[in-house]
Amino acid sequence: MARMVQCVVLKREAKGLDAPPHPGELGRRIYENVSREGWQRWLERLTMIINEYGLSTADPRTLELIEQHMVGFLFGEGELGQAPEQFRPPRAKK
Predict the structure, then answer these.
(1) I need a labelling partner for 46 at 20 to 30 A (CA). Which of 6, 36, 58, 75 fits?
(2) Is 12 inside a domain boundary?
(3) What's the pTM value of the predicted model, to 2 decimals?
(4) Is residue 88 part of a domain?
């Protein structure tokens, strides 16, 4: 039976993650409060953030910025977490 969590992203109960997806206290907090689907939504947002800002995950400053976006997106804390202002979703293919 899947572990269930009250997901802060989906605002409902959903299947939880199998393990903390991030190190440390933040990883534990995510594990306890974010569902698999909520985490997948974060990964989609992360891809958008990396592409829109042209970030390199090899740069330690980038990792700090990503973590700030993560906390903003998942928990609504801090100043980051929204889609980049200049982001325009791709048009649907016809």
Answers:
(1) 6
(2) yes
(3) 0.81
(4) no
